[in-house]
Design goal:
The complex is a heterodimer of chains A (about 525) and B (about 375). Chain A is an alpha/beta fold. Helix content of chain A is about 30%, strand content about 25%. Chain A has 17 helices and 24 strands. In chain A, a hairpin with a 2-residue loop joins strand 19 and strand 20. Chain B is an all-alpha fold and about 375 residues long. Chain B has one domain: Orthogonal Bundle (ABC transporter involved in vitamin B12 uptake, BtuC), CATH 1.10.3470. Helix content of chain B is about 75%, strand content about 0%. Chain B has 16 helices and two strands. Chain B starts with a helix and ends in an 8-residue tail after the last helix. The chains are: A alpha/beta (about 525), B mainly alpha (about 375). At the A-B interface, helix 10, helix 11 and strand 20 of A face helix 9 and helix 10 of B.
């Protein structure tokens, strides 16, 4: 099953891209071990693999960011060596990164032209011809887009399209999309998929990297699965299903949906009453949210990123002062209480942005594992830190939460995303909790880590902890929650029992807030 | 593991010193006709040999090295503890000056008191003055967001003018031939070793291990380092970045003020009007040389101290003026800041991790972090 097709396809046209026997060794890791990959013209080729499986390394090699120790890259049958990203772009390879590389204050057109400005003479920009081409491209995709709108005013879905447009504008023939749907709603995802299919009819080849198995099955023409630096399987979507792919990726059978059993909700733990909060620029972005989370239940809040969830969560965990309203934990008024106070009252918080809030990346695991407990026994007596106690705890956490690391002394930055998240989960969940706030707890993680974290959450629920789950990942909310709320433009527009919630209904609420469907396909927001 | 990490930390500073010596040699050769009458290719060797023997060749030279190093070490700590909290304390010079003038003023007032009282109270005055002068930018940063680079630079000017006013006005010694404060008399620090190895050198030698212990073995140091490494995570962890910024700047000022006390009470015995040392600014070089680590600061301070101590012999034996030391120091600072140049010249591929202090420096220009 590993490479049965290669010899058979010799007589067709050469693949648009062929990577042969790519091997890359980093100190201590064999990141790529003889990887073969063929991408044909007009094909959407999905690359699946857990974090750390070697996808990124392979794509970095393709994009000229890393040099392979062995192996060959062929474009249209011609062997090439790609020395830098600009070299890759010149050869028609373009990369759309997971984190958008757009300048928010520049217009759509300027973002696309940036770095490849069309010149009229040595000094002046030739905007006219560039605009002409951009309009043609937009028409090709059937878009109405305002080329002069600042990118920062566009929705995330549109920003993603601008990124792809940028690649196409630069005459890319091979597009690498790194988790392009990670931050999109189901509706936006569908629009991107339409765009990608349109591109393939024009002969573009697309390498599609994603963790979402059902998306891969929907969009890809072919799927290559990588595990620990090796190709472990190649599949056609028609021949496989999610379970099969997950098993290939992880190397063992994976339960894709956690068996969440029945919940036994108890007394209300967290009571939020008419809460208002402002963002960093002083705009009110949470408008009168009221909710209640009971012991032993998961309340999931769905919503497209940027609808006030971040500020709501920050206001609840003590990182942001609410502008009005009341928050009660276990009957005590904790409105405006600080993180440490809440921590001591039995609240734990797994933040969405683990690099910003959850970890100090330059610190070793030992320090990160006691980041919220460093000041109290046994980790400190008075102001004296107890290094031994900290190490003992770190060793225990690494073992118990299956954190894959060479030692507890390496910097958190060197761990994969899944293992970094396990560090946070180990720290926050490893005690008796009254309330657990999970903000996008599995963003960017692979299926194995997602399974692990979901199980931990359900175990906490069953132990009687009240859980507030906030996620832009609709599937996650549907899977874990006992009750589901939807945030739209700072308001909680719906609150329903999870058993009566469907993907479509919640998706629609996320996109429209429950009023009649709005037109969403204008460029400027 | 630990040895490897240490090695990778000291590589760049050591190579920066080597490069600086090479650049210095070129400067010495280029200007050698003024000394030898012709292009003298061995003059750099003679100059450097004299420098080394001046600094380390005799017991008195060695003591002089330590004496010169002491204020640099304290100022280096004042800058590097700021680095640890993500602060670029350019104000060590001002904090040093107010510490010095406080010691001079109180010392002069207690010139006839019993020595232990005079010394103790003068030093205390310097500590308080420096601490207050560090507290101000810390407070402004924490509660108004005013950037410490801007405020400390401005406070440096205020300190210079304030000292000039005091020495030429209310503090001026009557009967002195030039504007200076009265002698500190009984507050003068006793000489412990050699010709001028005064008590002040102990301040630096004691401050180094205390700073190290505080930074790496206590929860206070953990908070300071966390705020420097990731202020958002610090807030998340229940720390108060505001108070930590204020406390850190206050301690920085205190250390720089102590350096000022050592210089006045241990060396000059009074405060002259045009008191022109650059101890506070040299502290930045020392902090970068020492990678913002107290142990590194000790060596960085000793190196710069040795160059100061040996420079006289260099001028006498090789005819190379003492100002050559400033050239060397400037070039060292240049290469420390332009770390990439050093990496390129020596093809160093070591990890770029842990150069957080440079990030603090470059972040000071428009809040950008180096990649």
């Amino acid at each position: 099953m590993t490479e049965p097709t290669a010899p058979l396809e010799q007589h067709g046209p050469p693949p648009a891209l062929e990577m042969r026997g790519i091997t890359k060794r980093y100190p201590g890791v064999l990141a790529n071990d003889g990887i073969d990959l063929q991408v044909h013209p007009g094909e959407i080729h999905a690359l699946l693999g857990e974090n750390g499986a070697g996808k990124t390394t392979l794509m970095n090699i393709l994009y000229g960011l890393a040099t392979p120790d062995a192996g060959q890259i062929l474009l249209d049958g011609e062997p090439v060596s790609i020395s830098s990203p600009s070299d890759a772009i010149r050869r028609g390879i373009s990369m759309v990164h997971q984190h958008f590389m757009l300048v928010p204050v520049l217009s759509v057109a300027d973002n696309i032209l940036l770095g490849e400005e069309p010149m009229a003479g040595p000094v002046f920009l030739d905007r006219r011809s560039a605009y002409g081409r951009l309009r043609d491209l937009a028409t090709f995709f059937g878009w109405e887009i305002d080329l002069d709108a600042p990118v920062g005013t566009l929705s995330v879905g549109w920003q993603q399209r601008v990124e792809i447009l940028k690649a196409v504008y630069r005459n890319a023939q091979i597009l690498v999309l790194d988790e392009p749907t990670a931050v999109l709603t189901p509706q936006e995802t569908r629009e991107i998929f339409t765009m990608l299919r349109r591109l393939t009819t024009e002969g573009y080849s697309i390498i599609f990297i994603s963790h979402k198995l059902y998306e891969v099955l929907e969009i890809a023409n072919r799927i290559t699965v990588i595990r620990r630096g090796r190709v472990v399987g190649e599949r056609l979507p028609s021949q496989t299903d999610e379970e099969d792919l997950a098993q290939l990726m992880v190397g063992r059978e994976v339960q894709l949906t956690v068996d969440r059993g029945t919940s036994h909700p108890g007394e209300p733990r967290l009571v939020v009453d008419d809460l208002y909060a402002r963002d960093d620029r002083g705009h009110e972005v949470v408008h009168g949210v009221s909710l209640e989370v009971r012991a032993g239940e998961v309340l999931g809040i769905a919503g497209v990123a940027g609808n006030g969830q971040d500020e709501l969560v920050e206001a609840l965990v003590g990182l942001r002062r609410p502008s009005a309203g009341r928050v009660q934990l276990d009957g005590h008024d904790v409105t405006g209480a600080g993180p440490r106070d809440l921590h001591q009252r039995g609240m734990a918080f797994v933040p969405a942005d683990r690099h910003r809030f959850g970890l100090v990346l330059s610190y070793p695991l030992t320090d990160n594992l006691v980041l919220t407990d460093y000041f109290r026994p046994p980790y400190a007596r008075g102001i004296m830190r107890d290094e031994d106690a900290i190490r003992v705890q770190a060793g225990k956490a690494v073992e118990q939460y299956d954190i894959r690391t060479p030692s507890v002394d390496v910097a958190a930055a060197t761990l994969s995303g899944g293992n970094q998240q396990k560090v946070i989960v180990a720290r926050e969940l490893d005690r008796d909790l009254r309330l657990l706030v999970l903000d996008q707890p599995t963003r960017g993680l692979d299926v194995g880590s997602i399974e692990f974290i979901h199980r931990q959450a359900i175990a906490k629920r069953d132990a009687g902890t009240a859980i507030l789950l906030v996620s832009a990942e609709l599937d996650e909310v549907l899977e874990l929650s006992d009750r589901i709320g939807v945030m739209y433009r700072g308001r909680l527009v719906a609150l329903m029992d999870a058993r009566s919630a469907t993907r479509e209904a919640v998706g629609l609420l996320m996109a429209t807030g429950g009023s009649q469907p709005q037109k969403t396909d204008t460029g400027a927001a | 593991m630990n040895l490897r990490r240490t090695l990778s930390l000291v590589t760049i500073p050591l190579l920066a010193i080597v490069l600086a010596l090479i650049v210095g040699a070129v400067v010495i050769i280029a200007s050698s006709p003024l000394v030898s009458g012709h292009l003298d290719l061995v003059l750099p060797l003679r100059a450097y040999a004299a420098l080394v023997s001046g600094a380390f060749g005799t017991v008195n030279g060695l003591i002089q090295t330590i004496v010169s190093a002491s204020p640099l070490i304290l100022a280096g700590l004042a800058v590097s503890i700021g680095f640890k909290a993500g602060l670029f304390n350019i104000g060590a010079q001002g904090q040093f000056l107010v510490g010095a003038v406080a010691a001079a003023a109180v010392g002069a007032g207690l010139a006839h008191a019993p020595a232990p009282v005079a010394i103790g109270v003068s030093i205390l005055a310097a500590l308080v003055a420096g601490a207050v002068y560090g507290f101000i930018p810390g407070f402004l940063k924490a509660f108004t967001g005013a950037h410490e680079v801007v405020t400390t630079i401005m406070l440096n000017y205020i300190a210079i003018q304030f000292v000039a006013y005091l020495i030429t006005g209310p503090l001026r010694a009557t009967g002195a031939t030039f504007a200076r404060s009265p002698s500190v008399g009984a507050a003068e620090l006793p000489v412990l070793i050699g010709r001028n190895g005064h008590l002040g050198i102990l301040f630096a030698l004691v401050a180094v291990p205390i700073a190290w212990w505080l930074l790496y073995r206590t929860t206070i140091g953990f908070e300071v380092r966390t705020v420097g490494a990731n202020p958002d995570a610090a807030r998340y962890a229940g720390m108060s970045p505001r108070w930590i910024v204020i406390a850190t700047m206050t301690v920085c000022g205190l250390l720089a003020g102590l350096a000022g006390a050592g210089e006045i009470l241990g060396i000059t015995g009074y405060m002259p009007a045009g008191y022109s040392t650059n101890v506070g600014f040299d502290g930045i070089t020392v902090a970068l040389l020492g990678r913002a680590n107290p142990i590194g600061i000790l060596f960085g301070g000793l190196l710069l101290g040795a160059m100061r101590a040996g420079s006289n012999l260099m001028q006498i034996q090789a005819g190379v003026p003492v100002q050559m030391i400033d050239v060397l120091q400037g070039v060292i600072l240049f290469f420390l800041a332009a770390e990439l140049v050093v990496r390129y010249v020596f093809r160093v591929r070591a990890a770029r991790a842990q150069v957080t202090e440079l990030q603090t420096v470059s972040r000071s220009y428009g809040q950008q972090t180096t990649p």
